[in-house]
Design goal:
Number of domains: 3
Oligomer: single chain
Structural class: alpha+beta
């Protein structure tokens, strides 16, 4: 510990001795670590964060699917059999996603909700923050207990956090419900990504989730009595001592028994378990692909930053040759020197990690203040900095310090003792060895920067192709509004009359233009209103006219059609922006690295350049020499980078529209851009080489 403390103190002194180099290195690392931490916060929210419930690792999704499609839902009678006959779960609950019209003193809103069995909250181990949760007593008799539990978020936003909300009546789909509780903060359902704002008992299904045949509006028999229609998800808590494998075997046996008992409804039925701590398996693969893509890109950015810092440390090691040689001559072991140098690089990594964490926090705040348009994603993602993110940043900082510090430490710890002790600045063998290492790092930087740049180019080309598709009408003058009369149990006759009045009244508003509606009736339709000017100018009037016909019907997605089209392009646009930003960051770091290595090369070859010019070389010959060496490194790096880019493009192929993963335009244009930037980065030190005075250079040594 004493030696470690000495290494730490000496490392801090060395970093403070060269504040400029320390600042540049820390900033490079901060950009790389900050990018990785920002993306990891999203990955953490998707795959690592657990539900805020009791012992979440004991919870399992139970899917009741078919062979070839295991991730499916279950009917209520089948759920009852799974609940009562299984021997592996202490509790097995069922729930279904619903959309309801919430009305009361304010205008009606459409909110996401969950219809749950009476043991739902007990299964999850979640207690109400205010009032009580839904209990088995609330879920025994159909339509007998119209009660509701609010999410903490809805309680705050709609009811102002009023503690007297317990016992208050609200209207769900036009029916009176009594508020009995408020869920704890942070709890918004059994699934990590899908949030619910209200919870109501399963026995209230007839009004909370009206049964219907397709979208015709005609009522089906009660869903609670029919074994055929599957619409519920199951979640169970393992009994103490029961493993997931044992539970899978037990639930599979029960599924086989149900298939034999009810062959017409359950032919081919299988039961499959999946941990609740993971994303729903139906969306698992595309999310993993997207996360892998982003982490790969930011990983490349960090590697480029590491190469930059390694180059800086190699340059600093050149100035410390005599110090290191003296320590070796006095008996210091090479391993002792390597440990000291690694300590300095780890300190630099931690410094970059702290700055990177601040950058990540700022980036996350920016992303949170610019959420995606409503309806773009079917889930809500709450990401931020938590324990997982902090440990990731700390571990990445340590690893980064070792990665970029190891090669310079190995090189620096074996100097040519005699020239170094004599303080001879011209040590050909040592210079060639260090310069070869710096060249390898530049090649790696160019290769790693080309891949994300080509990825960004593919996304931009794809976005341009999508945006160039014309819808065939002027979307800027069309107002859209979703109408879901199925929430209010309208029959076909009532639904037709509602739509007739809606079209008639909205059509009579000033500035609104004819369209006929006499085709097939559906309970969920979208109202399109063509306006003479800005469609948002008539939005309030449209809402007023619709609510004058039906006060409990919420109008959702009230926006210009151009905004709706723009929202559909949000994933492509965000992909292009994120990959583009990281690609440009990689390009900037690579350019800085190339500039640094060429500047170092010029400084190390001052005498050689002076000799060449004394023998008759012209300034343009020196320029050509430096640029040729720089572009040789760039060409080698781009050749390797093309291979990396080809692999990356395969990963993003499913996200592209109208553009192949090996798009010739992108694979040609991006290297040209990289070449131009590399030429600029190389020209500056080459220009300095052109101005070398032969007499001064020859006197240097």
């Amino acid at each position: 510990m004493k030696t470690l403390w000495q290494d730490l103190r000496y490392g801090v002194r060395m970093l403070m001795k060269r504040p400029g180099l320390t600042l540049i290195a820390a900033l490079s690392l901060a950009l790389g670590i900050g990018a990785n931490t920002s993306i990891f916060s999203i990955v953490n929210a998707l795959f690592l964060r657990q539900l805020p419930v009791s012992e979440p690792d004991k919870l399992m999704f139970v899917f009741n699917g078919r062979r070839g499609n295991p991730w499916s839902v279950v009917s209520y009678p089948n759920y009852v059999d799974y609940r009562d006959k299984n021997e592996v779960f202490s509790e097995l609950a069922a729930y279904g996603k619903i959309i309801v019209s919430l009305s009361g003193d304010e205008r009606p809103d459409q909110v996401n909700g969950t219809i749950v069995t009476g043991n739902y909250f007990a299964t999850l181990g979640a207690r109400a923050a205010l009032g009580r949760a839904i209990s088995p007593e609330d879920d025994k008799t159909p339509n007998a207990h119209p009660v509701v539990v609010l999410s903490h978020r809805l309680w705050q936003s709609r009811f102002g956090g009023n503690r007297n909300v317990i016992g208050r009546e609200i209207a769900l789909n036009g029916n009176k419900f009594t508020i009995i509780g408020v869920a704890p903060a942070g709890f918004e359902g059994a699934e990590i990504l899908e949030k619910s704002d209200i919870y109501t008992p399963m026995m209230m299904q007839a009004v909370a989730r009206p049964p219907r045949g397709g979208f015709s509006g005609e009522m089906n028999p009660d869903l609670l009595q029919r074994r055929g229609p599957s619409w519920l998800r199951m979640i169970g808590r393992l009994k103490p001592g029961v493993t997931m494998e044992q539970a899978q075997a037990g639930i599979s046996t029960l599924a086989s028994q149900l298939e034999k008992a009810y062959p017409s409804e359950n032919e081919g039925t299988i039961a499959t378990l999946f941990p609740v701590s993971k994303v729903d398996p139906r969306g698992y693969t595309p999310l993993v692909t997207a996360a892998a893509l982003l982490m790969s890109v930011v990983g490349m950015v960090l590697l480029i930053a590491c190469a930059n810092v390694a180059n800086l440390l190699l340059a600093r090691a050149s100035a410390r040759r005599k110090e290191i040689a003296v320590r070796l001559a006095m008996g210091a072991s090479r391993s002792r020197l390597i440990r000291q140098l690694l300590t300095e690089s780890v300190l630099l990594g931690i410094l970059g990690g702290v700055a990177g964490l601040l950058i990540a926090i700022w980036t996350i705040d920016v992303l949170k203040t610019t959420p995606p348009p409503v309806g773009v994603f079917s889930f809500n993602l709450d990401f931020g900095v938590d324990g997982h993110v902090l440990w990731f940043t700390f571990g990445l900082s340590l690893l980064t310090g070792i990665v970029f510090g190891l090669a310079p430490a190995l090189q620096s710890s074996r100097p040519d003792l005699l020239p170094s002790l004599k303080d001879e600045s011209y040590a050909p063998v040592q210079s060639r060895r260090w310069f070869a290492m710096r060249n390898l790092l530049v090649v790696a930087q160019v290769a790693l920067s080309l891949a994300p740049l080509i990825g960004a180019g593919l996304f931009l080309r794809s976005l341009w192709r999508i945006q160039s598709v014309h819808p065939g009408f002027d979307a800027d003058k069309v107002l859209t509004a979703s109408l879901s009369i199925n929430l209010l149990r309208y029959t076909t006759r009532q639904g037709r009359e509602f739509y007739r009045q809606t079209v008639e009244r909205v059509g009579s508003l000033p500035g609104v233009e004819y369209q006929p509606l006499a085709q097939n009736h559906e309970t969920g339709m979208t109202l399109h209103v063509r306006a003479a000017g800005d469609p948002m100018n008539i939005a309030a009037a449209v809402r007023r006219e619709v609510n004058s016909i039906e006060k409990n019907l919420p109008l959702t997605d009230l926006q210009p059609m151009s905004a709706l089209i723009g929202a559909s392009l949000y994933p492509a646009r965000m992909g292009a922006v994120l990959i583009g930003v990281f690609g440009l960051l990689a390009l900037l770091l690579a350019a800085v690295g190339l500039y640094g290595v060429m500047s170092y090369a010029v400084s190390q070859r001052t005498r050689e350049i002076g000799v060449r010019m004394a023998l008759g070389a012209q300034a343009r010959d020196v320029l050509r020499l430096v640029l040729r060496e720089a572009m040789t490194l760039v060409v080698i790096g781009m050749t390797i980078g093309w291979g990396l880019a080809a692999a990356l493009s395969r990963l993003i192929e499913s996200f592209l529209f109208g553009v192949g993963s090996m798009d010739a335009v992108t694979f040609a244009a991006i290297p040209i851009l990289l070449t131009m930037v590399a030429l600029l980065a190389s020209y500056l030190p080459a220009r300095r080489a052109m101005k070398v005075d032969p007499l001064v250079a020859l006197r240097c040594d």
